[in-house]
Amino acid sequence: MTDPAEDQPSDAPLPLPITGELDLHTFRPAEVGDLLGDYLAACTARGIRSVRIVHGKGTGALRERVHAWLRRSPLVASFALCDAAEGGWGATRATLAASGQQKARG
Questions:
Q1: What is d(CA 24, CA 16) in angstroms, rounded to the nearest whole number?
Q2: Can you give the C-alpha Rg of the chain in angstroms?
Q3: 22-96 maps to which CATH number?
Q4: Angle subtended by helix axes 32-45 and 61-72, to nearest 10
C-alpha cells in the first residue's frame, strides 16, 4: 500500500490548521513573510483576533524577522512577546485588527 504523501510533489503546499497558533520551527526564514500573511488573513477571516506565533529563542534572527513583518502588516493591531507561561521571548502574541479596521501601511 502506498503512502498518500508520496503522491504529492515535495514542494506542494501542506494545509495548516487555523487554530490561532503558528509554529515556525519547521519553516525556512525566507518563507516567513508569505506564511504570516496567509495565516493571519485566514485567522482574520475566521474571527480569530489573537494569534500566538512561535519563533523559538535561538539567536533572535527569526524573532526579529517576524517582528519586522508584524510592524508593517495592516492585519496586525499590536504584538508583544508572550509571558513565561506561553513561551516567553520564544513566542509572540499578535492581536489582529478587526475586519475593516486594518491600519494603513506606512
A1: 11
A2: 15
A3: 3.30.1370.110
A4: 50
The residue to which cell 504529492 is assigned = 8
Of the candidates 73, 79, 75, 72, the one whose C-alpha atom is nearest the C-alpha of residue 99 is 75
Integer Cα distance of 104 and 18 in angstroms: 25
List, for residues 26-80, the tens digit of each pLDDT value.
888 888 999 999 999 999 999 999 999 999 998 888 999 999 999 999 999 999 9
Angle at 38 between CA 8 and CA 5, to 5 degrees: 15
d(CA 41, CA 37): 6
Whether the Cβ atoms of residue 60 and residue 35 lie closer than 8 Å to each other: no
Nearest partner of 33 among 79, 71, 90, 77, judged by Cα: 71
Q: What is the predicted pLDDT for the residue at 40? A: 97
Among 64, 54, 48, 92, which residue's Cα sits nearest to residue 75? 48
Cβ-in-10-Å burial (0-12, 13-18, 19+) of 83 comes to exposed
